[in-house]
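Today's session is about reading a structure prediction critically. Students often jump straight to the picture, but the first step is always the sequence itself: look for stretches that repeat, for charged clusters, for runs of hydrophobic residues. Only then move on to the predicted structure, which in these notes is written as discrete structure tokens rather than atom positions. Here is the chain we will use throughout the hour.
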Amino acid sequence: MGFLAPWFFAGAAALAIPLYLHLLRRHTSNPQPFSSLMFFEPRTQSSIRHRRLRYLVLLALRLALLALLILAFADPFISRPATGVTTNKLLALVIDNSFSMRAGSRLADAKREALSILSSRSPSERAQVFALGSGLEAMSQPTDDPRALEAAVSAIQPTDSRGNFGDLARGLRSFSDSVQGPIDLHFFSDMQKSEMPANFSELALPAKVSLTLHPVVSSTVPNWAVESVNAPGQVWDVKKARVQAVIAGYQTPAATRSVSLEVNGKTIATQKVQVPANGRANVEFASLNVPYGFSRCEVRIDSADALPADDTSYFAVERSDPLQVLFLHDASDRRSPIYFGDALAASAESAFKMESVSADQASSVQPSRYSFIVLSDVVALPSSFENDLARYVRGGGGVLIAAGTNVGRTPRIPLFGANVLDAHYYSNDPAGFLTVGDTDPSHPSIAKADRWSGAKFYFAVNVDASGSQVAARLTDGTPLLLDKKDGEGRVLLLTSGLDNLTNDFPLRPDFVPFVEQTAFYLSGSERPAGSQLVGSYLQLRTAKERAVSVEVVDPAGRRPLSLQEATTAQTYQLNDGGFYELRLANGRQDVVGVNADRRESDLAVISPDALSLWAGKPNRNNAAVAANVAPAAAQATQKFEPHSLWWYVMLLVLFTAVVESWVANLHLGIRREE
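Below is the predicted structure for this chain, in token form.
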């Protein structure tokens, strides 16, 4: 018990007032007629007898009335647990419907046990049903209607999402803020170990929530799965394409499994693989013979466990002809076409086919035929071609310009539009060269090229870099690689040449990934991976397709986007396993295979000790586990709320005042009779 205003107890001094008033009571006597007092001896009468307290019951009532008033002004309260303030309890049923609940009859068992809990509750008790997949999802509103609650349980279906028990705790912490009374939480799950958060303290629930766990399995079940597949998203030469897969066994004995590669529903290759006990095995298919266009491919193992849903891994492959690349160079330049062409052929797996043309022959060339264009130390271009090239870039095309010694003698870089400040011949310096200093590793041309370490540059053109992004600089600060956007396209400028005279970059290993990434970057043809995980997001449009309508077809053949979303949405979350198809109004299409997170394939269960600790019933003999969850226990300390007693005290004040008035009137009547 406590007091919100304890200083009002100073008013206890007022209790002396009734005592003082009762002691000041005047002694009165009624004169009686008597014949003579001559025979009486005079004596002083003592007043002690007359100062004794009388009417003790009335005095006690008045003292009690004052004491209660003082107590009321002190505002007393008692501390009650937060769950004890009200009896409006809510029964919350949470059913795990993550991917692992597809194994055997786990989800059906969980739903049957949840219905049993609902049937045993009081008819007036409110309940609410939730599903736990990628997050905590409310399947019903708080209600005491048994039909609505049973329908909500029946509506829960298995998903391909990965569960996380930390999401359950976070969702309950947010949900409990909107609930006034205590929450009786019942959780039905396979208690998969891989769904535990990294920190046990993340499982801490609010003080008003009492947790009861209902495991639908008691032991770990062995399971095999296609854990991962490494396959190209695009194929230009099917003879060079490779498919690699990893077959994993979780708590399984050693076994031989049959692995098949399927393309558009047809098996094209099968291999046997020995999977060690509780281990992994690799398998490789040497070719991927797919037709032109998009193909839906699968790597599948023969089903031999309780979770056949993870025996298949989906991925999509697009086969197309190589993209055309135009390489314009000076007629006297014989080196740069060879270096760039060899690097392009070696790096991109025949994705591009380069056409080399001298600058004086460019008038008959149409830029729109090419995925991107390279200008290697070209000083002048035919005016018609230069105009077509400018329109090509503004319409979304990409151009790479290499500024060699010829461009260094001109006042301005063609197409890029930057002024040439000066030309540096580092071969005349004492060191004879400069190396790369600062680089931007996030730029696509730099990301896989090891920052061009060790490359020697004997010549570079110093240009005005205003209005462009500098991706690389030499050690003296001279811009080496610049990126400039023009309309919907972009122009890259390398301030040195593509031959081995102005630098030795073409002779180094970093040159090949530079050419590969620059080619995909400028052409915009690099397709995302052909497979993604459930829960990831699919990019619906490129920057050039912001106003283009899009249609998404999910694995069940549904079109989940509304008309408004089809024109405004930029991404779409992939919630189901299988193949998604993307169709744009401009004719572009895409297909992606989606797979469940393979951490759900490990069906190992949480230890009973950990479950007991989570439910608030720790095993005292397991001191090690208890020490690990001490922070969680500290966070789950019961909270108390003050409950005011003011109204109860005021009721006592009223009752005491009535009794005091009645007793006072009673004594007054006696005095009148006397």
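Discussion point for the tutorial: Residues 416 and 491 are 7 Å apart (CA to CA).
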